[in-house]
């Protein structure tokens, strides 16, 4: 969920700051000397280990899932952070070379930030529709033999006559059979200016009635209403992959294979 990625990003980002401060590369870039305290050389390995386990776990888990299907970016990210972590720890324990703790930490941070933004954007669309659906009244004013009775919107059937008073939100899709009013349909069209509705015009659930009273005949109920169809389309879009997403997955697959092949060839040579 976005909240999980957000929490992991901020915690890992805070843990990254001391790693950056103690990094020899950062000290060279910005021309300063980090403070020297007993045991300070162990701060970076310890913080990097926490970042690898806590922040990198989602990518390691994702890579494991890809191993049972088709490898992609999760595999590449998991491989990158795992190799840099193992090699850096080996350097700390005495292997000749330079550690990659800073690269490990910043890569995890960037990937967590990217996934947080992506998931928040995807979830935002469905939440907007859910909030809109919550605003639709549960009760409608049905006209029966010249009398008004309040009934549940779920009990309405096609052809029922519904009274919509000034300022009320339209509870269901219908066709205007009496009255004239201006209706705000910004949630559907993005147009903030109210639209005049008169006899013969269609109104949709979720629109806000203006200054006049309208009587409508129900034309669509349940899952057939415009709002319900919008919500279904959003859910289907989130569950399916676009042409560009499929292309990105194929590129990620080949990028992962190429990266592993080149790295393996480099190691052999």
What does this protein look like?
This protein is an alpha+beta fold and 269 residues long. The protein has 9 helices and 9 strands. It has helices spanning 2-22, 24-30, 43-55, 57-67, 73-92, 101-135, 186-189, 226-239, 243-268, and strands at residues 139-144, 147-152, 161-164, 173-178, 181-184, 195-197, 202-203, 208-209, 214-220. The strands form 2 sheets. It has a 6-stranded antiparallel sheet, with no helix packed on it. A hairpin with a 2-residue loop joins strand 1 (139-144) and strand 2 (147-152). Helix 1 (2-22) packs antiparallel against helix 6 (101-135), helix 4 packs across helix 5 and helix 6 packs antiparallel against helix 8 (226-239). The chain starts with a helix and ends with a helix. The model has no long low-confidence stretch (mean pLDDT 89).
What topology emerges from the helices and strands here?
Elements: H1 2-22, H2 24-30, H3 43-55, H4 57-67, H5 73-92, H6 101-135, E1 139-144, E2 147-152, E3 161-164, E4 173-178, E5 181-184, H7 186-189, E6 195-197, E7 202-203, E8 208-209, E9 214-220, H8 226-239, H9 243-268
Antiparallel strand pairs: 1-2, 1-3, 3-9, 4-7, 4-9, 5-6, 5-8
Helix pairs in contact: 1-3, 1-6, 3-5, 3-6, 4-5, 5-6, 6-8
